[in-house]
């Protein structure tokens, strides 16, 4: 990295685009540090390409993808932990269809708005909705961009985003817009892919490219780390933030099946600085390296998916708050005396 | 132009009450106006129209078209090109 800052006039921008690893992705979130105008224009992902990939994914999608379903199920499970009901909900990009299918009356949603940047994806959901009228949720559809949320302020009780926000260039900005769309005491639920996702593929790609091409290009996006997720929530102004992480390992026959699966989820490379050409022998070398480095005894290859779940609420006076400093009436020493010195 | 479409708004509402209540312009966050003639949502604050296809409004900024002075949308894709130059700026800086 140090070399790159000599080479590149704008080292900050460079590191943001190229940083496939955790340390760099930290810089990616700081969209307001230093020169605000310049950094707000910094783009990591090709959103237009992502839309196209998601258009294709709408056709390629597997009917019941177990990974996506597990994540959606886990996310929706959180609604059952809340006593509050959510009459009006907004469901953002990513696994829209899975969320709609698995909702099953959770959160007692009455009016659901589904939004995705890909029109094909939205059409697919609309058709699926017409085919199966399983519950009486009034569902509406919008094609929109998470970075430019077309939702009125304070109009939603719940915003759900399942595996979509990790493709936004300005994640804090997108989250702030989500917060604004929420009513006071509204809930924001999101699942994004974390930095450990596809670590095996990252290593295999790097090794193969070094070997065949003598250099590397970013093949896998910079992703948020767990510690960033908490910062993101607080920075976006959510109260009672909660972050937790789950790791899923999916077994594939070979690295090619993994890529097929990623394509079907619309999760393929959309970095602006990507190398558009993937040479055939590099691809084969990647698969071979993947297999030799990570292959299991039964011939399958594992792939890690790290999912970060984020929960946050829009501020409301009824929410619990920490008491002000110095307002305690009992000293900790008394508490210790009361409960003894067991620990 | 604005008056006619406003009066028609009450009669023909293809999006339903729910959507018209919550949707705003993605860029200015100002209310949108439905135009029957072009079947699009118009943001008066920035003078951009967003198409409605299959009853689904498309509110992605790059899908929008900048309106001419008279208020009729031209097929020329000005919104797209402006965002493209913005992108180039980002790349050059």
From TrEMBL, chain A:
GO biological processes: methylation; mitochondrial respiratory chain complex I assembly
GO CC entries: mitochondrion
Residue ranges occupied by any Methyltransferase type domain in the UniProt entry: 97-189
MF GO annotations: S-adenosylmethionine-dependent methyltransferase activity
InterPro entries: Malonyl-ACP_OMT, Methyltransf_11, SAM-dependent_MTases_sf
Keywords, in A-Z order: Methyltransferase, Transferase
PANTHER family attached to this UniProt entry: ARGININE-HYDROXYLASE NDUFAF5, MITOCHONDRIAL (PTHR13090:SF1)
Name listed for the protein in its UniProt record: Methyltransferase type 11 domain-containing protein
Organism: Acacia crassicarpa
UniProtKB/TrEMBL annotation, chain B:
Gene3D superfamilies, per database record: 2.20.25.10
Ranges where the record places region Disordered: 63-93
Comp. bias regions, Basic and acidic residues: 65-77, 84-93
Family named by the database record: Belongs to the PREY family.
Protein name: Protein preY, mitochondrial
Species this chain originates from: Acacia crassicarpa (northern wattle)
